[in-house]
Amino acid sequence: QVHLVESGGGLVQAGGSLRLSCAASGRTFSGYVMGWFRQAPGKEREFVSALRWSGGSTYYAGSVKDRFTISRDNAKNTIFLQMNSLKPEDAAVYYCAAASRDRGSSYYYALRGVYDYWGQGTQVTVSS
Fold it and tell me: pLDDT (tens digit, 9 = 90+) per residue, 59-68?
């Protein structure tokens, strides 16, 4: 059974940085797609970023491109989301997700429904 545990959330001032981590366990993740989503109060869960474990290709939502960076540590089975130049609108619960099937198209990586496993989330608060 795949298990995802996020950490690294917290309170930061606008313009600051945070680094989220997602520790993945339960199997090897070669061939998986790993994603980060976020959900603010009263809003739907939205795509933030994705990474193809095999090959390392990365994808970003337009709202975070050039500010956020997704990466992985193969040895530790861990995914990171480096968030820079944070804005109040980035405040949300951030979720890590894993898709066991790589559909090979960035269109699918942004869809919640393609992810089989989810973490419990970590809160990010950005003060203005």
Answer: 999 999 999 9
Instruction: Measure CA 34 to chain center.
Output: 7
- Label residue 4 exposed, middle or buried (CB < 10 Å: 0-12, 13-18, 19+): buried
What lies within 8 Å, CB to CB, of 113 at 6+ separation is none
Beta-bridged to residue 113, according to DSSP, are none
Please name the residues in contact with 92: beta carbons below 8 A apart, sequence gap of 6 or more.
38, 39, 40, 43, 124
pLDDT tens digits for range 98-111: 999 998 888 999 99
Nearest to 122 by CA among 27, 51, 48, 57: 48
Instruction: Give kind and range of the element (H or E) at residue 107.
Output: helix 106-109
Quickly list DSSP for 55-98: T--EEE-TTTTTTEEEEEETTTTEEEEEE-S--GGG-EEEEEEE
78 residue type, one letter: T
Written as six digits, the tokens of 97 are 């997700």
Compute the half-sphere exposure of residue 64: CA atoms within 13 Å on the CB side of its CA.
Answer: 25
Q: What's the distance, Cα to Cα, between the start and end of the chain in Å? A: 40
